[in-house]
Design a protein that fits this description.
mainly alpha, DNA polymerase, domain 1, hpI Integrase, Chain A, three-stranded antiparallel sheet, two-stranded antiparallel ribbon
């Protein structure tokens, strides 16, 4: 973990890499990784794919963890690791909700998770970007929110929805009560990234760095488990994940929607309203516009607006039925006319 933190990997990456390395060591019968080679690594990855049925992205993550272990921790350069095949993730179109579906889902979210869900849909922020939001990064005057250290460690600016201005101010008041309680009880300040806590000694205890969505309980800092530092963290991301799942079910929506679906819907609805793709790219924080282009594929699918041949058959069939019905209705008069003429 020391090497991961030295290279400033995120906590989520740290947890994932440690999980896969421990799993590899346990699978090998608690042998040291230096004693293992290409055959064992390949067998472990094959087990993940064939027995545990992990996805391609999970398979790639496990391989990356082992590469990091040998190269960065053990300092061992093994060319065979580079030769191991990396599964190619399947390209899938994102799940997108219609505006009425989003409205229905958000209507079933209440309280702090309701505000957080609206904020994610209204700004396109990722879940962790939302729960890690700090007081100092919400600018009510300029109507913007600064997203710090998003995916890839990048900062960006998103809009602050006017509809959420007052709810956010109310949330600030609730958050400030937690901050005042922590200061009066002498709890350590909030977690600060990298070396900021050492550079700005009092910053962790300041209101500016406090969470917009703080947890209601004090817990042990996961980055200092050995020291046992207990402080207030942000709202746990599982809160919204659980509440949104219930909201989707209550709305009767059959799509496999998750919290990230709100981000997909945000981008799609912006493009539908005429926002140019470069603006959407900046709001989402994509380095390459090709990543943003997936939402244009959702909008401009060849299936949309193209008439199915079945519709043509059914239309032709209805016309034939109408014509036959007219003939059948006219048949008695035709027979009577022919009989009288004979």
């Amino acid at each position: 973990m020391q090497r991961l933190r030295y290279l400033h990997y995120s906590l989520r990456t740290e947890e994932a890499y440690v999980y896969w390395v421990r799993g590899f060591v346990r699978w090998s019968g608690m042998r040291h990784p230096r004693e293992l080679g290409a055959e064992e690594v390949q067998a472990y990855l094959s087990m993940l794919a064939n027995e545990r049925k992990v996805s391609a992205s999970t398979h790639r993550q496990a391989l990356s963890a082992l590469l990091f272990l040998y190269r960065e921790v053990l300092g061992v350069e093994m060319p065979w690791l580079q030769e191991l095949g990396r599964p190619v993730p399947r390209k899938r179109l994102p799940v997108v909700l219609t505006q009425s579906e989003v409205q229905s889902v958000l209507a079933h979210l209440t309280g702090v998770t309701g505000l957080l869900g609206r904020l994610l849909y209204g700004t396109g922020m990722r879940l962790l970007e939302g729960v890690r939001l700090r007081v100092k990064d919400v600018d009510f005057e300029r109507q913007v929110i600064i997203v710090r250290e998003g995916k890839g460690g990048k900062d960006r600016v998103v809009m602050l929805p006017r509809a959420l201005e007052q709810p956010l101010r109310d949330q600030f008041e609730a958050s400030r009560r937690y901050w005042l309680a922590d200061r009066s009880s002498g709890h350590p300040g909030v977690y600060l990234p990298h070396a900021l806590a050492a550079k700005y000694v009092r910053a962790a205890e300041s209101w500016a760095w406090f969470w917009v969505f703080p947890s209601s309980v004090i817990s042990t800092d996961p980055r200092s488990q050995d020291l046992g530092v207990r402080r207030r963290h942000h709202l746990h991301e599982k809160r919204l994940q659980r509440d949104l799942k219930a909201a989707v079910e209550a709305s009767g929506i059959a799509k496999p929607a998750t919290v990230h679906t709100l981000r997909h819907s945000f981008a799609t609805h912006l493009l539908q309203s005429g926002t140019d793709i470069r603006t959407v790219q900046q709001l989402l924080g994509h380095s390459d516009v090709s990543t943003t282009m997936v939402y244009t594929h959702v909008l401009k699918s060849a299936a949309a607006g193209t008439t199915s041949p079945l519709d043509g058959l059914m239309m032709h069939g209805r016309l034939q039925v109408k014509e036959r019905s007219a003939c059948y209705r006219a048949m008695p008069s035709c027979i009577a006319a022919a009989t009288s003429a004979s």
